[in-house]
Amino acid sequence: MHIARPGSALLAAAVAVTLSVTALPAAFAAPSSSAVISEVYGGGGNSGATLTRDYIELANAGGSAFGLSGFSVQYLPGAPSAGSLWQVSGLSGTVAPGGRYLVAQAMGAGGTVALPTADATGAVAMSAASGTVALVSGTTPLTCRTAADCAADARIVDLVGYGSAVVREGSGPAAGASATASVARGTSLADTDDNAADLTAGAPTPVNAAGEIPGGSGPGGPGGPAEPGAVRVHDIQGTTRLSPLAGKPVTGVPGVVTGVRTTGSRGFWIQDTAPDGDARTSEGLFVYTGSTAPTVAVGDSVLVSGKVAEYYPATGAQSLTQITAPLTTVLSSGNPLPEAAVLNASSVPDAYVPTAGGGSIEALTLAPETYALDLYESLEGVRVTMSDTRVTGATTAYDEVWVTVKPRENPTRRGGTLYASYEDRNTGRLKVMSLNTAQPVPVADVGDVLSGSTTGVVDYASYGGYNVQATELGTLKDNGLEREVTRKQKRKELAVATYNVENLDAADEQAKFDTLAHGVAVSLASPDIVSLEEIQDDNGAVNDGTVGSEATLKRFTDAVVAAGGPRYAWRYVAPQDGRDGGEPGGNIRNVFLFDPDRVDFVDRAGGDATTAVQAVKTKKGAALSVSPGRINPTSTAWDNSRKPLAGEFRFRGESVFVIANHFASKGGDQSLHGRYQEPVRGSETQRVRQATEVNTFVTSLLTADRSARVVTLGDLNDFAFSPTMKALTSGKVLRPLITTLPAGEQYSYVYDGNSQTLDHILTSPAVRRFDYDVVHINAEFADQASDHDPQIVRIDVKGKGHRH
């Protein structure tokens, strides 16, 4: 499985915007759903108000800029008459990912505080108590007067009804708006199409595109607090994962700057030097400065004002508590930093995370002495240090490296940390990144050590969860991990291998072909049969109807010859265009390579993308109806997924049936570190169905000939202890060979610092003796041609051999 990684964004992707009274029709679907109305205030300038103007605040919950050219915000009274008109305010510019956009409306006679500089200005006198605001694609006034009529207007991107508004989303309008209260979405910007549920009343908190709030000019600029306020960092963090002050403004929060991030999600961390003594409440906090680079330095003593927010980096992730739209006053510089908390085998609990029966753990009181994730949450934003940490996940292209603070936790033979079960989640793993440009993350392989102290602040991200943003990195100790080379098969042994070559197509650089070919010719010692997963069509992601892979396979097999291997022949069944999942346009498929000097492929015509291969009983045993052929390819179990490829081979006069697989991705499953515990593995349902299809076919082969030699192999995208494997081996028709290895060797893939296996080779009962090997050449190395390690089994079809 190759997991694509999107860039960082301030806010989690919003729920797609479709407006409803109960459930409005799809005609209300927006042209783009990343922009939402985040806050509405109609009390500006009224008696008792502090702010002098009404306003509408927009937000971008997406990962890319949202252009507002040609858009408008429009206002309708809460109880419109037949003559009521929508009042239009034109917009321009863009809303940055995670950013805000402020539309100032009419000014009243009351109030004393001006809005921050508006990004757009209208002249609409909005009601403080009741009304409807719409974000519209276009500037022509809307004509609808009811929620049902507005549902038919596809120009509406988002809509908020408040007070007693007739036009609104869901069961009712947002309640509580007044001269002193706005209605606003939560910090996650969730839009469930119910205004009453999505927006709540509170003190107005307008923010413009520059991150300015009333009374100041932006992060670190004029208007910063002069005196410490009553709120401290631990008050903001609270005793659960969610801040009790989320969505509220805070003033003059004191702390010492412990880390500064000037790229990506810009901002800085502060830590209180006067802790409250409660282990559950973190004393550290991230201050998000948005598109503006922070102007503070490590060691500065600061006062920070702004708005408390919970940032969700992805759907299902936990949140990061932070202050947004900050105004910062530097009191002094060069101050000593708070002592770093020590992370080691003694301080990190063995239990991973509390359970909420599949629900959210956010409201649970933290128990840092019991659960590792509770400990890390209680240290969110806090300086930590760890010593002599072993690398369990090699340095990535994103300059990240995984280490463990528990060197004895489920160690593998080569220095990793084994993921042994759903219950055993390896609590000592942490991802490390560097805030120190003079000391970047070193290029490290599994088993290397960051010797000495690594110190930094605890952060949370969608990929990997809790991590350490290092201000000081330990020194790399290279432990010399070497790529493995398996032995050559004996003359009487049939060698069958599986290798996921990670989206290989004819347009890839020659270096990738050469490295993968070396893996086959040298590391795997030139197997007789190789099942390749993730072979794309000849032009890769170009989506023009191409489905053939001849040029890709020609380049690959030429590279194998150049590396000293045999001249392989190949067989595959081309997929229907766009039907097999994977990278769009790539038409991924399974392919057999075979050495014609060692093994014969039995060709039987008729196999195509939609024809199902069948087991045929003959006087000489089982045979395939078509070869190569696909297993029940029209079954819904294979929707948007690769279809298994079955082939009949002859070796030393004996038939061997090989089934190449690439089951559905685990993408979309809830993460181990997410807020839902226990996490739902939603993709598992399809893989179980796929495994059942393969099991049914293998059973039919064994019904035709109980002595049939069947090798089922490939990237199953699931673990040896998973329901997928149970379904595949049901009835004992197949034996998973990964479980025959010592525990410390049962892996072929490394993800988030966990050594695990997604690739498998299984054999039927007639394969009584075997020599099986996972050949570690990729997954543990920073320099890798694929994110998977290949596997190989050598069998004696005459029944002789030895067990690994």
Concise structural overview:
The chain is mainly β and 804 residues long. The chain is globular and about 95 Å long.
Give helix % range.
under 10%
What does the largest sheet look like? 7 strands, mixed
**Proportion of residues in β-strands:** 25-35%
Low-confidence stretches: 1-32, 217-222, 800-804
Q: Can you give a write-up of this model?
A:
The protein is mostly beta strands. Helix content is 9%, strand content 30%. It contains eight helices and 41 strands. The strands form nine sheets. Strands 29, 32, 33, 34, 35, 36 and 39 form a seven-stranded mixed beta sheet that branches. A six-stranded mixed beta sheet has the order 8-7-2-1-11-12. Helix 7 (684-704) links the parallel strand 34 and strand 35 (710-715). Helix 5 crosses helix 6 (550-562) and helix 7 runs parallel beside helix 8 (723-729). The longest helix has 21 residues, at 684-704. The protein is globular and about 95 Å long.
Q: Which helices and strands occur, and which strands form pairs?
A:
Blueprint: E1 35-41, E2 53-60, E3 66-67, E4 71-77, E5 87-90, E6 94-95, E7 100-107, E8 120-121, E9 131-137, H1 147-151, E10 156-162, E11 182-185, H2 195-198, E12 199-202, H3 233-237, E13 249-261, E14 266-271, E15 284-290, E16 301-311, E17 320-332, E18 341-342, H4 372-378, E19 383-393, E20 401-404, E21 429-434, E22 449-461, E23 465-472, E24 475-477, E25 494-504, H5 510-523, E26 529-535, H6 550-562, E27 569-571, E28 589-594, E29 600-602, E30 615-618, E31 621-624, E32 629-630, E33 645-651, E34 654-662, H7 684-704, E35 710-715, H8 723-729, E36 735-736, E37 749-751, E38 754-756, E39 759-763, E40 770-774, E41 791-795
